[in-house]
Amino acid sequence: MTLTMPLPTHTPVLLNEVIEALNIKPGKRYIDCTLGLGGHALAILEKSPTAQVLGIDADPEAIDIAKAKLIQHSKSITIVNDNFTNLENICQENDFLPVDGILFDLGISSLQLEDIERGFSFQQDAQLDMRFNPEQVLTATDLINILPENRLAQLIYEYGEERRSRQIARLIVKNRPVISTVALAKMIEQAVGYDRQQKIHPATKTFMALRIAVNHELENLEVALKQTVKCLNRRGRLVVISYHSLEDRIVKQFMKRETMSCLCPPQTPVCNCGHAPSFKIISKKVITPSASEIEKNPRSRSAKLRVAERL
Q1: Positions of CATH 3.40.50.150 in the chain
Q2: Mean pLDDT by 10-residue block, N- to C-terminus, for the chain (311 residues)?
Q3: 185, 203 in Cβ contact below 8 A?
Q4: Which one-letter DSSP state was computed for residue 193?
Q5: Could you tell me which residues come within 8 angstroms of residue 292 by beta carbon, excluding any fewer than 6 positions away?
Q6: Is the peptide bond before 98 cis (omega within 30 degrees of 0)?
Q7: pTM of this structure
Q8: Residue 311: burial class (beta carbons within 10 Å; 0-12, 13-18, 19+)
Q9: What letter does residue 30 receive in the DSSP assignment?
């Protein structure tokens, strides 16, 4: 990809809080597992020009933009187009172990949401796609047209936390094939009703559910979090920004589990699990954006940041 247009602008979420949470020190190594347009990575290198950063992103378009944006720091950053589920292997292949901080900024980027051809949004009509990596085979069109009605309803209910998933799935199946973002959004309006005064469009949860399923977001997050234990140096920080309750629950449960000295069931008389705590929680209370940040960047409103430190 050759970038001939001006680089897109981007406002990283909870930027100051992330930099503080990572506890950045000169000459240390940090991983941005969701590089995106490079905003957080740039801030890390501006905080400490002698730091080294490994940036990972599954989206090749984001990779190209981040490389252009971070070109002045090319000697300090290694950029890899891959999925963060391969975190440990990526670190080994790039001789980037151990590290002193790992950042996950989960969810969808502005770049992906605003690109009509990617089919993430129903603000403009496009073919349903929703893949973070265009080389991936499965698309949202495939899911919505292939899954049996009961499984489609379950997907929308579990990943979108949509109470009216059965009505939505029933109408989708009745009107297959469905390939258009706008057509799907209108179908959902018809299934559940739509009051124009509502702050959130009724299709929002279903679109989120499809995106999560297409990209295996929750499963991938669990796989990647487990690898951070082996990658982080003593006193290294794990910093995670999530945007909906399912992601945040996974992060919260992982951090809680890794602070425990025993994972045996309560009724077990003597501990035999052999588990040792690997983290301590730094942010006892979840960190959220300030009112001023939400006003400047409304997409940050649902962000939740959690921090843990490697023992």
Answers
A1: 15-105+217-310
A2: 56 94 97 96 96 96 94 96 98 98 90 85 94 93 97 98 96 97 96 80 95 97 98 98 96 96 84 89 94 91 97 96
A3: yes
A4: -
A5: none
A6: yes
A7: 0.93
A8: middle
A9: E
